[in-house]
Specification:
The complex is a heterotetramer of chains A (407), B (105), C (170) and D (258).
Chain B (H helix, E strand, L loop, with lengths): L4 H22 L3 H25 L7 H31 L13
Helix pairs in contact in B: 1-2, 2-3
Chain C lengths: L1 H19 L3 H21 L3 H25 L13 H25 L14 H10 L2 H22 L12
Helix pairs in contact in C: 1-2, 2-3
Chain D lengths: L3 H19 L24 E5 L16 H5 L5 E11 L5 E11 L8 H5 L5 E3 L15 E2 L1 H4 E3 H7 L1 H38 L15 H6 L18 H4 L5 H4 L10
Parallel strand pairs in D: 1-6
Antiparallel strand pairs in D: 1-4, 2-3, 3-5
The chains are: A mainly alpha (407), B mainly alpha (105), C mainly alpha (170), D alpha+beta (258).
């Protein structure tokens, strides 16, 4: 298999021990087994590490989210279970595990059972290609970016299965919304990182991170977000990622005020928890993707900070992005279905296409230097801002001084 | 006669093609007919890959490119086909092919 | 070889069952499994890029469109109303399909197929990109135009004639 | 420009996130079981029986077991048994008292009709809300021991209303006293006149059960002790003549919770 070299990426000697220990640990444990089994044991260790670490991150994230949302609303958040409420995830887990598992009588039993399992499986699959550290790529693929989105695309399918199998009109509506949302937002999501692939010249995650190595002027990292087109692409990616992971303000498939709990209406107990877990895993995976594509992956933001192990930088960036997601959830109200699709088709897709042009311009003018460099920046910024303003005007036409007829 | 992997691949693709064909011919739901056609297209793609994989000159990658274009065409076909299904449904309130007799002219 | 057999099983059985089922949603979901099996075949054959494209396009996009179409065209009449000519059609389809299957199998089995001396080296994404951009540029452009036209055509076909949306559509 | 509103919103929530850490004033919630907010004065649910004296609630209930509330109660959650004997009320008059007064709070809907119909200001709305219990039959059926709460508690929870009620009661008792005095004076004058022209008149004297004002209007043949002679005051300890413990004894009926 092609995956073999990725699993056995050799730790280069130049790194510090702190940097290398996960790989060393895995190789040492795998070394105890006979050679034909070594790749299997190595993969199993990687899988276990991912599931354990991100399971823990999920548990911490549920608490963090509730705490942050509380702070957004000037509340302290959960603080009863254990010191500062730190044991809340455990209490939640026990509650979920001990709840009764209810399946509606007229439901499609097989699909009803399969949906949460498939959803969780697909969202864990996406972790396989994310570089968590300098050598910590579970699966080194040539077309890793494509793999990521192929695995991610299947998650909405599971949501559809859940909605349809429940035999509940709210669930079915949620399923249709999920489909419409996926179809709408797959496009800007894919288009937003095409410039990255254009500029990096590779679909491999490590290749993209390698392209972001180095510093401008000695201290500004050469991350893609610090270019005009990269920033625009990041913004589009962020919006589309919010929609893909069904996060507020795009949580229409599970809009509580309209659809009870959407596709989760007929789920209870541990199946419900699986859905919850999958949603958070999806969020974490998309954040990891954004970090890899735009934020330099596991690279340190400043040259003198490079002594800190790369996986800690990845974790810090991940935490930052997750906090941003929670912050956004606490701030914005939910969009309506037509607004959602309008935003995707009339704003994000054209903007992403324009951004493609900007990136092409950037790539063509890479030889410019001196004062031309300034002109390059100016033109690129203009190419980003002008379509944004114009499209934004089109999007918000007739909205600005809003009249409320029934208020 | 010796059964090479290429033979197996071709048998697989022909079996898939026939399943698609039977589905497309015998089902009356236009969506299922469309899906049958998709299956036949996929069977053809399988052949491209099989011949690319075991053919004399695999380095060219022509088979892969062919399948890539074929997938793109299949996507377009599915989109237009299902749009047609929806348009027919709007007129007939049914997606059964037997009900769409007015297309005869 | 066992890999190929498993893939054949995963591809053919769901496809056959899907074509026989009454429930269109079940058919569509089973076909997704079948398409995923085909993607696995591509992966097995070393066309990694193609496998992911297959999953992305078929599992991610076409299945969605199919399911959406099924939901939008839900039958008000009973789904299982057997039309009088159904049996005949099914028989004819089976006969024709069986005949084609026989012909194809016979042809495949009776043909000595030369096997390349060495199995194909997996084509890299980079090589694929170079091929697309150099030798097949025209085809790429044509496919792009085709997709755009198909998109517009689908929108025109599926869009309803009446323009009566909600009044405060914004 | 598009997005400026979004940034504004983000700014507001960011201020909340940061502000709630260093400025406790921003926190809108209280840590409930430990801290409690003061309930608004007009908050009311579930009735209680007003007693004049905190030390002897059963002896100083204002309720005279007239059973109006029992009849008016829409969900019929009140059950009253009149006592056989009488004992002096706050004004010192001999009154019937409730031997049994139960309210089923699982039925009560806090409609306040019992309060509105009570002519004696004896039943008032409470402010309890922590009424959860593990025993849904006996623990929710409150007897008169649990219902009786002193007037000072009433002042505490509804100060304005309680002051008004007390004022009204005071005024009523004053008026009754005045009338009694006037009646006494009139009776004395009559007696003097009768003494001048001895012509004995037989008048019924059964007045103990009726309110004092009514009693005072009846011309009494022998005005030995006027009913409203006791000092009238809003402060219960001064007002209430000590009730005999013997009268209290039958009050502890079988339903009284241990």
């Amino acid at each position: 298999m092609n995956a073999m070299p990725g699993i056995f990426a050799a730790a280069t000697g130049a790194d510090s021990l702190l940097e290398r220990w996960p790989i060393l640990f895995r190789d040492t444990v795998a070394g105890f087994f006979p050679a034909p089994l070594q790749w299997l044991v190595g993969s199993l260790i990687s899988i276990l590490a991912i599931v354990a670490i991100f399971g823990g991150v999920f548990a911490a994230l549920t608490l963090l989210e509730r705490k942050m949302l509380g702070r957004v609303q000037n509340r302290p958040g959960p603080n009863r279970t254990g010191p500062f409420g730190l044991l809340q995830p455990i209490a939640d887990g026990i509650k979920m595990l001990t709840k009764e598992d209810i399946v509606p009588r007229s439901a499609d039993h097989l699909l009803h059972f399969l949906a949460p399992v498939a959803l969780l499986a697909f969202s864990i699959l996406t972790f396989a290609v994310i570089p968590f550290g300098r050598n910590l790529v579970p699966l080194e693929l040539d077309a890793a970016v494509l793999y990521f989105f192929a695995a991610g695309a299947a998650t909405e399918l599971a949501i559809f299965m859940a909605g349809w199998a429940s035999r509940n009109k709210f669930s079915l509506l949620a399923a249709m919304r999920a489909l419409a949302q996926l179809i709408s937002y797959e496009l800007p999501l894919l288009l937003s990182f095409v410039p990255i692939i254009m500029l990096a010249g590779t679909l491999s995650m490590t290749g993209i991170i390698d392209q972001q190595a180095g510093w401008n002027f000695g201290f500004i990292p050469k991350w893609y977000i610090f270019t005009p087109w990269g920033f625009a692409a990041f913004a589009i990616f962020l919006v589309a990622a919010l929609a893909e992971s069904n996060r507020s303000p795009f949580d229409l498939p599970e809009a509580e005020s309209e659809l009870i709990a959407g596709h989760l209406t007929e789920y209870s107990g541990f199946k419900y928890a699986l859905f919850f877990m999958a949603e958070y895993f999806g969020m974490i995976a998309l954040s990891g993707m954004a970090i890899t594509l735009f934020l330099g992956g596991w690279r340190a933001p400043l040259p003198f900070l490079e002594f800190i192990p790369s996986y800690l930088w990845f974790g810090a960036k991940l935490l930052g992005l997750l906090l941003l997601f929670i912050w956004i959830r606490g701030t914005f109200p939910r969009l309506r279905m037509d607004q959602l699709t309008r935003l995707a088709w009339k704003f994000l897709v054209p903007l992403a296409l324009f951004n493609l042009g900007t990136a092409a311009f950037w790539s063509l003018t890479s030889g410019w230097s001196g004062p031309l460099q300034l002109a390059r920046w100016g033109v690129a910024i203009a190419l980003v801002v002008v379509p944004f303003v114009l499209l934004g005007r089109g999007l918000s036409r007739g909205v600005a001084p809003r009249t409320y007829r029934f208020a | 006669m010796i059964l090479t992997p290429l033979h197996l691949c071709l048998l697989l693709s022909s079996a898939l093609f026939c399943i698609g064909l039977i589905g497309a011919l015998s089902r009356s739901s236009s969506i299922l007919v469309l899906l049958g056609v998709e299956l036949m297209l996929n069977a053809a793609n399988l052949n491209f890959i099989a011949f690319w994989r075991y053919g004399p000159n695999p380095a060219a990658g022509t088979g892969v490119l062919f399948v890539l274009f074929s997938i793109a065409v299949a996507a377009a076909e599915a989109a237009v086909g299902l749009a047609l299904v929806i348009a027919i449904y709007r007129h007939q309130r049914s997606i059964r092919l037997q009900d769409a007799r007015r297309l005869k002219g | 070889m066992t890999g190929l057999l498993i893939i054949a099983l995963v591809t053919l059985v769901p496809a056959a069952v899907a074509m026989a089922l009454r429930n269109v949603i079940h058919s569509a979901l089973l076909l997704i499994l079948s398409w995923a099996g085909i993607a696995a075949f591509y992966f097995w054959a070393g066309a990694e890029f193609l496998a992911f494209s297959q999953v992305l396009v078929y599992v991610g996009a076409i299945s969605m469109v199919v399911l959406f179409a099924v939901l939008l065209t839900r039958h008000t009449r009973t789904d299982g109303g057997v039309a009088p000519d159904t049996l005949g059609r099914a028989l004819a389809g089976l006969l024709i399909g069986g005949a084609v299957l026989g012909v194809l199998f016979g042809a495949v089995l009776s043909t000595p197929l030369p096997i390349g001396s060495k199995p194909a080296a997996a084509v890299t994404v980079h090589g694929l990109g170079v091929e697309l951009m150099e030798r097949h540029t025209i085809a790429l452009l044509v496919v792009g135009v085709l997709l755009t036209v198909a998109l517009l055509g689908a929108v025109v076909l599926a869009a309803s004639d009446s323009r009566s949306g909600p009044e405060d559509a914004r | 420009m598009l997005g400026s509103g979004l940034l504004q919103g983000l700014k507001v929530t960011a201020k909340n996130i940061a502000g709630s850490f260093h400025d406790p004033e921003r926190l809108v919630t209280v840590e409930y079981p430990e801290q409690k907010t003061k309930l608004p004065e007009n908050y009311r649910n579930f009735p209680f029986l007003v007693s004049e004296n905190a030390t002897d609630p059963m002896g100083t209930l204002r309720c005279v077991a007239c059973q109006i509330c029992e009849k008016e109660c829409p969900p019929q959650c009140i059950y009253i048994e009149k006592s056989k004997d009488k004992k002096p009320d706050a004004a010192g008059k001999m009154q019937v008292y409730p031997a049994v007064f139960d309210i089923d709070t699982s039925v009560c809907m806090s409609c306040q009709i019992c309060v509105e119909v009570c002519p004696f200001e004896a039943i008032k709305m409470d402010q309890v809300f922590e009424i959860a219990t593990t025993d849904r039959f006996n623990a929710l059926l409150l007897d008169r021991n649990q219902l009786a709460k002193p007037n000072s508690y009433y002042h505490q929870i509804h100060p304005t209303e309680a002051a008004e009620v007390d004022g009204r009661l005071l005024a009523e008792r004053k008026a009754a006293e005045e009338k009694a005095k006037a009646a006494a004076a009139a009776a004395a004058a009559k007696a003097a006149a009768a003494a001048a022209a001895p012509k004995p008149v037989a008048t019924p004297t059964a007045t103990a059960g009726a309110p004092g004002a009514v009693a005072a209007t009846v011309s009494v043949a022998k005005p030995a002790t006027p009913p409203a002679a006791a000092p009238v005051s809003a402060t219960p300890p001064a007002a209430a003549p000590a009730a005999s413990p013997a009268q209290n004894a039958p009050a502890s009926d079988g339903k009284a919770a241990p």
